Amino acid sequence: MAFAWKAAGLTYNRYLAVAARVVRRSLKEQPRLQAERRGEMDLRFAKWENGKQGENKSLADSNAAAMAEGAGQGQQ
Description:
Layout (H helix, E strand, L loop, with lengths): L3 H4 L4 H15 L2 H11 L4 E2 L2 E2 L2 E2 L3 E2 H16 L2
Antiparallel strand pairs: 1-4, 2-3
Helix pairs in contact: 2-3
């Protein structure tokens, strides 16, 4: 028997994210706000070259910039 999330084409991590969002939205106002704050995250990364760490960058900002660059190249 296949899992419903797998049959729907979701990864397990995506399934958990959707389930957590549904639970957070079902809470009353004050607990919902606290749970939503816990659900936020900021991932950062740094590129290493020649044994030295480069600048720390936000993953969300880098992804947005890459998407915008890719969209600009696709229209030319």
